Automatic annotation (TrEMBL), chain A:
Keywords: ATP-binding, Nucleotide-binding
Region (Disordered): 1-35, 319-349
Source domain of life: Bacteria
Descriptive protein name: Rubsico expression protein CbbX
Lineage, uppermost ranks: Bacteria, Bacillati, Actinomycetota, Actinomycetes, Kitasatosporales
Species, as recorded: Streptomyces nanshensis
Gene3D superfamilies to which the protein is assigned, alphabetical: 1.10.8.60, P-loop containing nucleotide triphosphate hydrolases (3.40.50.300)
From TrEMBL, chain B:
SMART domains, sorted: RuBisCO_small (SM00961)
Gene3D superfamilies: Ribulose bisphosphate carboxylase, small subunit
GO biological process: reductive pentose-phosphate cycle
Family assignment from sequence similarity: Belongs to the RuBisCO small chain family.
Keyword Calcium part of the UniProt annotation: no
Origin species: Streptomyces nanshensis
Subunit structure as annotated in this protein's UniProt entry: Heterohexadecamer of 8 large and 8 small subunits.
Protein name listed in UniProt: Ribulose bisphosphate carboxylase small subunit
Organismal lineage: Bacteria, Bacillati, Actinomycetota, Actinomycetes, Kitasatosporales
Stretches assigned to the Ribulose bisphosphate carboxylase small subunit domain: 4-103
Superkingdom of origin organism: Bacteria
Stated role: RuBisCO catalyzes two reactions: the carboxylation of D-ribulose 1,5-bisphosphate, the primary event in carbon dioxide fixation, as well as the oxidative fragmentation of the pentose substrate. Both reactions occur simultaneously and in competition at the same active site. Although the small subunit is not catalytic it is essential for maximal activity.
UniProt-recorded Gene Ontology molecular function terms: ribulose-bisphosphate carboxylase activity
InterPro entries assigned to the protein according to its UniProt record, in alphabetical order: RuBisCO_ssu, RuBisCO_ssu_dom, RuBisCO_ssu_sf
Tagged with keyword Lipid biosynthesis: no
């Protein structure tokens, strides 16, 4: 505020660039002068790099498989790192657009990767907070005319400075109903995504086939999302690894028989409809815990630590997946008791 | 005559960045922020018109700034202020309130004298702007 402005605030429309200029000046004054042309910069020495490495390692350790996704996340992280380095040499370039679309089957880790992505973007100073605001159609689309815009803007305001994660994004667009308000949401999102100064990152997530239809019906949207990341379904070995991780996380463990039984369970479950990868595994483990608890209570004897942490083959074999197969083969008596678990299977998706 | 209203009223007018910083402070205290406007700048006029609903559950000031911009664009000739409300028990009142826009021309106030009984004088303050009907008081309305 070196010169008094006299009366009043700058009129609308002019305050934006003026404020931005003032901000840029202040920022340059605070930052060190750009490096000389022949200087060299060690990316490893950047303190942001350490934080990014930490997050990437956590991503590698906690998420099984997903090689292509991890590679893509690394690429994006590298791009931002190099961008930072260029900035230190005083080389200005436009801020990279980082809107993304995550497509993949249910339970392939889209939301988890979004959280990690937010942490990485924050570490590199692209967004202000490692915050992910998860919304679905309900949170964006209004119920009557004029209700949609404020609702969408509210969601955008809450996500400001972080990541707006739109789950099942294809529900926004309903081609069969031309008066659907979803189109309005897409238009508002587009203007927000075009906004150069904003540091909001929009991520769209959904199942591959329907997302493909969604993007082909909205070419404007598709072209403004530079990063399309595809999440592959897990194979049997990866699912077993995931199961081991989940069991260990809950302070349980499979005994040998149970491991084999669970592997068998996965083979059968993967053939069934509505198999949703890691989420199905989690549900299966939850039900194993349930059966284990029932077995332990029925023992009617004092329990040791080993009893409490061990999941046995019997606990796994109780699943209705085995029952149904056995019934198909006309041999119901090998099935054990699948009674308590049948209702849960359909809810796995 | 410059209308001195609310917090920071004797400081130079804020830039958008400074407004953002103040709003960020209010949000960090857990105060929901709202935007209000009026063309009747009487000191005792405490109820200004609301621009939208108060904004709850925000973490960053961007949404508030967008609302302020919208309000300024719609009412370029009105006073616009930002209010932050502290809902905590025991306070439950406006915690922070400051102007973010004022009209280009502020004609000021007239002191009116009224003759009472026994030659007593009663005084009142009235903005010159209210000589004209609401909506036509300032350029740009």
């Amino acid at each position: 505020m070196e010169t008094p402005r006299g009366f009043g605030f700058p009129p609308p429309g002019q305050h934006g660039p003026a404020a931005a200029e003032a901000g840029a000046d202040a920022g340059e004054a605070a930052e060190p002068a750009p490096l000389a042309d022949d200087a060299e910069l060690d990316l490893e020495a950047d303190e942001a790099t350490a934080r990014v490495e930490e997050t990437l390692e956590a991503l590698d350790a906690e998420l099984v498989g997903l090689a292509s996704v991890k590679r893509r996340v690394r690429e994006i992280a590298s791009l931002l790192q190099v961008d930072r380095a260029r900035g230190q040499f005083g080389l200005s370039s436009s801020k990279p657009t980082l809107h993304m679309s995550f497509t993949g089957g249910p339970g392939t880790g889209k939301t988890t990767v979004a959280m990690r992505m937010a942490a990485i973007l924050h570490a590199l100073g692209y967004i202000r907070a490692p915050r992910v605001h998860v919304v679905t159609r309900d949170d964006l689309v209004g119920q009557f005319i004029g209700h949609t815009a404020p609702k969408t803007k509210e969601a955008l305001a809450r996500a400001a400075g972080g990541v707006l994660f739109i789950d099942e994004a294809y529900y926004l667009f309903r081609p069969e109903n031309e008066r659907d308000y979803g189109q309005e949401v897409i238009e508002i999102l587009l203007t927000e995504m075009e906004n150069e100064r904003g540091d909001l990152v929009v991520m769209f997530a959904g199942y591959p086939d329907r997302m493909a239809a969604f993007f082909s019906a909205n070419p404007g949207l598709s072209s403004r999302v530079p990063h399309h990341i595809v999440f592959e379904d897990y194979d049997h070995g990866e699912l077993m690894q995931i199961a081991e991780l989940m069991v260990a996380e809950e302070n349980f463990r499979f005994d040998e028989g149970a491991r084999e039984a669970f592997s068998d369970y996965l083979t059968r479950r993967m053939r069934q409809p509505r198999f949703s990868n890691a989420r199905s595994v989690r549900n299966a483990i939850e039900r194993c815990r349930l059966r284990q608890a029932r077995r332990l209570v029925a023992l009617r004897r004092p329990l040791g630590k080993q009893d409490l942490i061990t999941i046995t083959a019997e606990d796994v074999h109780g699943s209705s997946v085995f029952t149904e197969d056995a019934e198909d083969e006309g041999n119901a008596e090998t099935a054990g008791d699948g009674g308590g678990s049948g209702a849960g299977e359909g809810a796995a998706g | 005559m410059k209308f001195r209203h609310g917090t920071f009223s004797y400081l130079p007018d804020f830039t958008d960045e400074e407004i953002g910083a103040q709003v960020a402070y209010a949000l960090s205290q857990g105060w929901p922020v709202s935007v209000e406007h009026t063309d009747d700048p009487h000191p005792r006029n405490v109820y200004w018109e609301m621009w939208g609903l108060p904004m709850f559950d925000l973490a960053e000031p961007d949404g508030v700034l967008a609302q302020i911009d919208e309000c300024r664009a719609t009412h370029p000739g009105r006073y616009v202020r930002v209010q932050a409300y502290d809902a905590s028990l025991g306070r439950q009142s406006t915690a922070l309130s400051f102007l973010v826009q004022r009209p280009a021309q502020e004609p000021g106030f007239v002191l009116e004298r009224q003759e009472g009984s026994d030659r007593t004088q009663r005084y009142a303050v009235r903005p010159y702007a209210t000589n004209r009907p609401a909506g036509a008081r300032y350029e740009g309305g």
